[in-house]
Model the fold of this input.
Amino acid sequence: MTTEFTPLLSLTGGALIGISAVLLMATNGRIAGISGIVSKILPPHADRGGLFQSLVFILGLLLAAPLYKLVTSQAAEQTMAASTVILIFAGLLVGFGSVLGGGCTSGHGVCGLSRLSQRSMVATGTFMVTAFITVYFLRHVLGATS
Amino acid sequence: MSLVASLIAGLIFGIGLIISGMVNPAKVQNFLDLFGTWDPSLAFVMGGAIAVGLPGFWLLGKWSKPLFTEAFQWPTRTDFDSKLIVGSAIFGVGWGLGGLCPGPAVTALSIGSSGVLVFVPAMLVGMWATKLVK
Done:
């Protein structure tokens, strides 16, 4: 299935993500890495302050879709190709890999690259390559329809 | 104030993910499908985020402390260990398989599609297990 090329919307959305990351660092001194923030709400809790900050940030994420719908009166577009079994497997890998690697698309990708962190450049390069290979394998070797 | 700032940052982040198309797994997987139905949009998401983040973080590097807390928690590690590589490689496989990474997955919980409702609990289990063994 093809999706529409949306350079302007994607650039605007990306800029908002960047603004959020800079805002969180400017106000609370924290990196807007979602795998880090989400894993902080899971036990064991290292610091209480971090726990509440994380919960409130996640609440903000959860309010985004309802607010978007309220303002634009249309739901966010979402098409999911993967089956339930694949999604469970994918979720486990994403959770395991992002915490082990110390970050995901936001922490390493957005924040790390913006800080010119070499660790994050290596991490981002690595997950981009394995993601490209995975989708190639999924669609062009196994022939999954998208 | 710091909790209000976190809430607003989360909200802006989520809106950014929705507007950019990151919450749509089909769009993510098409970006990753270089030899098929390639949709280059997500390169623009990264471009937009870094265009703001690069000068933003550079400026903040000159600040002595953040507005509402005592100190910046800048990442300090500079080493390249196997956890960084192996973890990132595994994360990439999961991202490619499902078309979802942590931010969009959590944001999409309130859209309520059934796929996200199975993906996120699995992701939390993966995170929790890793936290225990790490």
In short: Chain B has a mean pLDDT of 96. Chain B has one domain: 2-133. Residues 2-133 of chain B form one domain.
